[in-house]
Design goal:
alpha/beta; Purple Acid Phosphatase, chain A, domain 2; 7-stranded mixed sheet; 7 helices; globular; metal ion binding; metal-binding
């Protein structure tokens, strides 16, 4: 009888410990989204003119404004931090909203207010659209063109340049500041791909007008679009969409649940190896918001700052 009581006691104690661990993980999952991670990465760009050496490009995305318990405080925090950093350009890689409301103005008005600290700076801002901007929760949903057009119009009214399968040439002013200008030998190009799920990504159109050897950076929402880029056309590309998997296995930071389910085929976050055509390099940003659940575990929201250097 004594031994049975000991066994029951041990089982109850183990159950309490497991329960406490699970509760702690859940609580942390609710707290972690407010801790913003700033990742600084060197980006080697072939044929980068010397005057562009050391220039900085910041990347954020996946705000998902409109989801229940959306992470709007961190979106605003990210905008303020980037404004303080004063990078030379900012790329916003889609999913500004989560799902369009009955009054779609509400979400984009909220977005405008949240990123106002960034919008009111003189930093050039560029964007692409994501699947949620088309009100697509999965790839089989019917894209809502009206929703995407509203997001596009709102961004343009804020002064954000939308790069939908097109590129722009950037130049340096006399004050060594970055601005959009006419193509010249010392230009640095930014190209953007259309959203992947509504099958809008058109690399040929996006790259059209960029001289073959010109230095460039390619932005997109979904990492899967990267596979469509021709060899040596994207020495630096950045995507979002994955939220870093949103949940990572504790003590195994390279494993997200997506990586485990997809048997390491998921392109979740950071530099993605062995993916895409030769000479192309992809970095996946973890974004700020959520999908489905307002939790992040071992995948804090991210601002990526790329420091350009000649390859």
């Amino acid at each position: 009888m004594g031994k049975e009581r000991v066994k029951v006691f041990k089982k109850n104690k183990l159950g309490k410990i497991v329960g406490l661990i699970l509760v702690s993980i859940l609580v942390w999952g609710l707290v972690e989204p407010y801790f913003l991670d700033i990742e600084k990465e060197k980006a080697a760009i072939p044929n980068l003119p010397s005057e562009w050496e050391g220039k900085k490009v910041a990347v954020i995305g996946d705000f998902q404004v409109g989801m229940w318990m959306d992470n709007t405080e961190t979106v605003e925090d990210a905008a303020e931090k980037i404004a303080e950093m004063k990078p030379d350009a900012v790329l916003i890689i889609g999913d500004f909203i989560y799902h369009s409301l009955e009054d779609p103005n509400a979400e984009m008005q909220k977005v405008e207010k949240l990123i106002n600290p960034l919008v009111k700076t003189d930093i050039p801002l560029f964007a692409v659209l994501g699947n949620h901007d088309y009100n697509m929760g999965n790839k089989n949903d019917e894209p809502k063109i009206a929703s995407a057009k509203h997001v596009k119009t709102s961004l343009e009214e804020m002064g954000i340049t939308l790069l939908h399968n097109r590129s722009v040439a950037l130049k340096l002013t006399k004050d060594n500041e970055v601005s959009i200008g006419k193509p010249q030998d010392s230009s640095f190009y930014i190209a953007g791909l259309g959203a992947n799920w509504p099958e809008n990504a058109d690399p040929a159109k996006a790259l059209n007008g960029i001289p073959e050897a010109a230095p460039r950076m390619i932005m997109m929402h979904n990492p899967e679009s990267f596979a469509k880029l021709p060899a040596n056309s994207a020495p630096l590309a950045v995507a979002g969409h994955t939220h870093g998997g949103q949940f990572r296995v504790p003590f195994a930071p390279e494993w997200s649940y997506k990586s485990l389910v997809a048997k390491d085929k998921a392109k979740v976050d950071g530099w993605i190896e062995n993916f895409g055509a030769n000479g192309n390099h992809l970095y996946v940003n973890r974004g700020i918001g959520f999908s489905d659940l307002p939790l992040r575990i071992n995948t804090p929201p991210e601002i990526t700052v790329f420091i350009l250097t000649k390859a």
